[in-house]
Structure prediction request, 687 residues.
Amino acid sequence: MKELRAWWQRVRGISRDAQRDQEQADEIESHIQMQTEENERAGMSPQEARRRAILKMGGVERTRQAYRERDTLPLIENLLQDLRFALRQLMKNPGFAVTAILILTLGIAASVALFAFVDAALLKPLPYAQPNRLAAVYENAAAFAHSNLSYPDYLDWKRMNKSFQSLDAWSGTGYALRTASGVEPVPAIRVTDGFFRTLGVAPTLGRDFYAGEDLPSGPRTTMVSYTTWQHRFGGRPDVIGEAVTLSDVPYTIVGVLPKGFSFAPRGAPEFWAPFHAESECDLRRSCHGMYGVGRLKDGVSLAQAQADLQGIAAQLAKVYPGSNLGQGAALLPLSEAVVGAVRPILLVLLAGAGLLLLIACVNVSSLLLVRAESRRREMAVRGALGASPLRLVRQFLTEGLALVAIGSVLGLGTALGVMQVLLRLIPKQMMDGMPFLNGMGLNLHIVLFTVTIAAVATVLFAATPLVRLPTRELHDGLSEGGRGAAGTLWRKLGSNLVVAELAIAMVLLAGAGLLGKSLYRLLHVDLGFVPDHLASIEVSGSRAVYKKDEDTRRLDRELVDRLNMVPGVESRR
Amino acid sequence: MGDRTDVWQGTLALMVLKTIEAMGPIHGYGIARRIEQTSGDVLSLNYGTLYPALLKLEQEGAIASEWGASENNRKAKFYKLTRAGRKRLEQEAREWEQATAIVARFLKPGEEPA
Prediction:
């Protein structure tokens, strides 16, 4: 307890001011004067009295230093001293400081920003229970590596497979939602009964679909996404049991999905309804409109499940040669199905940013080397005056630390800004397919990543001048223009750094050039039509109002005619 | 062994505390002189080591200090015991007496513990 108290006092002592120094000096001086007076009274000459007093104390400076060191924590005080000195050194060379910090900031900002994307897309698992046991299930045929399932095939697979704890399927759809202000198209999704249980997601309010609720005879119920609940229903808890009209059919809301839940393959659906197989397509074996998602049994690998389903597909092909001949099964980890498309892009970009950071480090290292060269004599003098090699090494370490610390903080700040800009550059539709990028911001991973590259950079920058200043050769620095082996080393290292830097820059330049060329080609693909001033509109009408095909045609004609009356619009079917 | 004994760290704190208790508020020079006198000038105290020791006691909360005027009207820093310091002095004195008593029993010739 008392140790802790003393330690805290010493920590506070670090920020001591000149007055405290003065007080301690005064106290020692008053001690010496008292003793001097006493010695004089004992008959000594004034000089002798004072000399004896100082002798008895063991030296004024030594006492002051011991007193002072007890007042603070010398190790930390030295560090702060080094840091202040380092900052002063940087201020004295604003050109060097600004250049080095700017280079570092750019390098770190680029790496951290891209790491944030990689972290969000590749490292954070899907927001489901045990996501690595989830598989995306497809049919496959000669023309389609990953094709949709047909509902009858899905039912057979679900019934016959031995690899999945549960196998479910979903199909994207859209409804016309009747609201107070009219009818609005909303994205939706139809799922088989166990869909949410397979993902390991429970509704935050209300209930999940029960087994059999997805059969054609089941009730018309729906679950809503959290955002829909908040925006359309004001987050009211009594929304459960409320009726909504979706494409003229009344549905009852039975549940609200949790806040963090998202289902990337379908973007951002607002309503989730049980899959009621009713349409002609739903019931036809050759009409493929569903995606499967399954949870593997413990101990079953993806390859085993694949073989299992492949076997079932072969049996089905024999029984239904008309629709299923040549069809197999294809499985992917669900995460792969979600981020598979962006992974190579992100990794390439991260690698590019890494190279950029490397160039930044090499650049700053070169600057430090040049500076170390001009400070050889300073170091030699300090060494000769008694600075221990450790103290000199620590000086360089502190200077590297100061540079990197400033660069990292600025870099992290810039990265956070850049991330927001990049996120805004992603079109809304693509963003819906990448819900894992939502709410991207400062998190522990990013901070740890920044600290790691900062630590590596610090060590690198501290080591660079040391290569130049082997402590045992300090005395060489004192002699004017001593260019021994160290000079050769410097030239070798310097030229190698330049070679490495040029090579990295070439890689980056070539990559950027190729990307630019691809973009140019994409922008100049011949579309076969002139896309200027063209807009397309999607119109959905209710079957209740437009019952027959004749009604639909009339709507179509009327729409085009009315649109033509809008000034500046030329409309054609 | 020399004719004057050096003071070692652990006991210096105890002596300082006891001296302050006995003398009331007292300055560093006074403490140093008093310790030497009490020891019958057998102890040789390097006065320079006294100040870090005083600072340590102050940091640990055993003593407090304030500036005042000495008997010769000289500006000096006076130290006094705090409540925690008094408690600590009692405890350390007791421990010291126990320790010396035990060592003394070992050194007494011919008397085996029963």
Notes: Residues 5-107 of chain B form a domain with the Arc Repressor Mutant, subunit A fold (CATH 1.10.10.10). Chain B touches chain A through 25 residues (CB under 8 Å).
